[in-house]
C-alpha cells in the first residue's frame, strides 16, 4: 500500500517540482516582459532551451510565503542585454551591476547563469587569495590567541589594538567575499555550477531567485572570540552562504549547501573551544520576510538556518514569514531552522540526523509560530525524538503528521510536542495559532517524503 502511495506521490511532486510554463508577468518593481515560450534572446542563445526556460521561470502561484501578493518573479523581465553567463567572481560582480560596493542598489531586472566554479577569494588578477592576503598588517592569529587567552585576559570581550586589527581584517574580507545582490535578480547555476568561499548577500534584494547552485566553504578567516558565549566561550563566524536581510519575495530552490573539503570537524581547538569558521547556510534576518526555501540539500553542516536577528522585540515582529518544504537536512547539527517571531511553515522535509554533535532540529524561539507538518525524521544512534525540538524562549509549536525512524526501529508516527514535553520543562503548547494556506502541490504523507526528497532535492536535479 505504501509503495503505491509513494509512487503516486513521486509522480505528483516531480510534476510540481519541474519548471512550469514561463511566466509573462512583470517584476513587482516593473520592467519589460520576459521572453515567451522559450524564445531565444541573443545574449543566452548558447544555452539549452531548458536553461533559458529555467532562467525565465517565476515562483509558481501558491508556493509558500514568497508567493504571497505580487509573488516572486526575479529577473524574468530582463532584457537581452541583462542576461549574463559568468564563470568568475569578476564576471559575477559585473553582471550584478559592475561595482560590488553599490550593486545592492541595482534594481534592473537581470538573469545570471553561473557556469563552473566561482571563487569569492579570486583576486583582481584571477589568482586565488588566502586569509593572509586579507589580514590587516597588525593582525595575527597567534598574537590574538596569546592576548585573549582567558587565563591572561579573563572572561571579558576582547578589546584593544589586536581586536581592532581583527575587525579591520573582517572589513577586508567582507569587501572581497561578500557578493551583494540587488532586487529583481535571478541567479541560476548551469550543471555543476559552484559558488565557493563567498556569501550571497541579499540585503534589500526584493524579488530575487537563487536556484541550482552548490555552495561550499563560506569560511571566515577571522572568527571572533566570545568568552561569555556559553560556559566556556565560543568562536563565532560572520559569513553565511546566503544571507537574506531586509528583503521580501525571495525564492531559494534546488541548491546544495556544504562545507566542501573544509568541514568544521577538521578545524583546530583554540582557547579550549573548536575554531568555528562557518556560520549559516541560509539565514533570514533583519526584518526580511516572504521567503520560500524549497528542494534544497543541506549536507554535513553545523548551523543551517537562523530566522530572526535577536530576541529583542522590535521591527522583526510581524515579519520573518518563511516556508521550508521538500528540503533534505543530511548530517547537520542545529538550526533546522531556529526561529524567532516569524510564522514559519515547515512541511514535507526529510531530516537525516546522526552524530555526537547533533543538538536539535527545530528551535522554538521568542514569539515564534512554527508549523511542522508531515516531515520525516531518520535518526541515527543516540538521537531521540525528544531532542528534535528545542525551546529557545518560545511557548508553542504546531506539529502534526510527522514520522520518525529511530536507529534499529521501524518508521512510526511521532508527536514531536509530546515527546519534547515528556523530557523537558516547561512544556510547549501544541498550537502555534495559525494555519498555513500557501502550499503548492500535494502535501505528501510523511512516509513518502524520503523517496521524493531524495530524488529531487539539491543542485543538478533540474532539467538543464
From TrEMBL:
Q: Which InterPro entries match?
A: Pec_lyase (IPR002022), Pectin_lyas_fold (IPR012334), Pectin_lyase_fold/virulence (IPR011050), PEL (IPR045032)
Where does the source fall among the domains of life? Bacteria
List the keywords (alphabetical). Carbohydrate metabolism, Lyase, Polysaccharide degradation, Secreted, Signal
Give yes or no: UniProt keyword Signal.
yes
State the Pfam families in the record: Pectate_lyase_4
Residue ranges annotated as transmembrane are: none
SMART domains the UniProt entry points to? Amb_all
Where is the protein localized?
Secreted
Signal peptide segment? 1-24
Family according to the record: Belongs to the polysaccharide lyase 1 family.
- Descriptive protein name: Polysaccharide lyase family 1 protein
Amino acid at each position: 500500500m505504501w509503495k503505491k502511495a509513494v509512487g503516486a506521490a513521486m509522480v505528483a511532486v516531480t510534476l510540481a517540482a519541474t519548471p512550469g510554463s514561463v511566466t509573462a508577468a512583470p517584476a513587482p518593481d516593473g520592467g519589460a516582459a520576459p521572453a515567451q515560450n522559450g524564445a531565444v534572446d541573443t545574449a543566452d542563445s548558447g544555452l539549452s532551451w531548458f536553461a533559458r526556460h529555467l532562467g525565465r521561470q517565476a515562483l509558481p502561484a501558491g508556493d509558500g510565503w514568497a508567493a504571497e501578493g505580487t509573488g516572486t518573479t526575479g529577473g524574468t523581465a530582463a532584457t537581452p542585454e541583462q542576461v549574463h553567463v559568468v564563470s568568475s567572481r569578476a564576471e559575477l560582480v559585473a553582471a550584478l551591476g559592475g561595482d560590488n560596493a553599490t550593486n545592492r542598489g541595482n534594481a534592473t531586472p537581470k538573469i545570471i547563469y553561473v557556469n563552473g566554479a566561482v571563487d569569492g577569494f579570486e583576486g583582481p588578477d584571477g589568482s586565488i587569495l588566502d586569509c593572509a592576503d586579507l589580514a590587516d598588517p597588525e593582525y595575527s592569529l597567534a598574537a590574538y590567541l596569546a592576548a585573549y587567552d582567558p587565563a591572561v585576559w579573563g572572561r571579558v570581550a576582547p578589546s584593544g589594538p589586536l581586536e581592532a586589527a581583527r575587525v579591520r581584517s573582517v572589513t577586508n574580507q567582507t569587501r572581497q567575499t561578500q557578493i551583494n545582490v540587488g532586487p529583481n535578480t535571478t541567479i541560476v547555476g548551469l550543471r555543476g555550477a559552484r559558488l565557493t568561499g563567498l556569501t550571497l548577500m541579499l540585503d534589500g534584494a526584493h524579488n530575487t531567485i537563487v536556484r541550482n547552485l552548490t555552495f561550499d566553504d563560506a569560511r571566515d578567516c577571522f572568527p571572533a572570540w566570545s568568552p561569555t558565549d556559553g560556559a566556556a566561550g565560543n568562536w563565532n563566524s560572520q559569513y553565511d552562504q546566503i544571507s537574506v536581510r531586509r528583503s521580501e519575495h525571495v525564492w531559494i530552490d534546488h541548491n546544495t549547501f556544504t562545507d566542501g573539503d573544509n568541514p568544521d570537524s577538521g578545524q583546530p581547538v583554540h582557547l579550549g573551544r573548536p575554531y568555528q569558521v562557518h556560520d549559516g547556510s541560509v539565514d533570514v534576518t533583519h526584518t526580511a520576510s516572504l521567503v520560500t526555501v524549497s528542494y534544497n540539500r543541506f549536507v554535513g553542516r553545523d548551523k543551517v538556518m537562523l530566522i530572526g536577528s535577536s530576541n529583542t522585540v522590535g521591527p522583526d515582529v510581524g515579519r520573518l514569514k518563511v516556508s521550508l518544504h521538500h528540503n533534505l537536512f543530511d548530517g547537520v547539527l542545529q538550526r533546522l531552522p531556529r526561529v524567532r517571531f516569524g510564522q514559519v511553515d515547515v512541511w514535507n522535509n526529510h531530516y537525516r540526523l546522526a552524530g555526537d554533535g547533533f543538538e536539535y532540529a527545530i528551535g522554538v524561539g521568542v514569539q515564534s509560530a512554527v508549523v511542522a507538518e508531515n516531515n520525516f525524521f531518520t535518526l541515527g544512534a543516540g538521537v531521540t525524538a525528544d531532542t528534535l525540538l528545542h525551546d529557545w524562549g518560545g511557548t508553542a509549536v504546531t506539529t502534526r503528521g510527522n514520522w520518525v525512524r529511530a536507529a534499529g526501529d521501524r518508521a512510526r508516527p511521532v508527536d514531536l510536542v509530546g515527546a519534547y514535553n515528556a523530557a523537558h520543562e516547561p512544556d510547549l503548547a501544541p498550537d502555534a495559532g495559525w494555519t498555513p494556506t500557501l502550499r503548492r502541490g500535494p502535501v505528501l504523507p510523511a512516509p513518502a517524503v524520503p523517496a521524493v526528497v531524495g530524488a529531487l532535492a539539491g543542485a543538478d536535479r533540474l532539467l538543464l
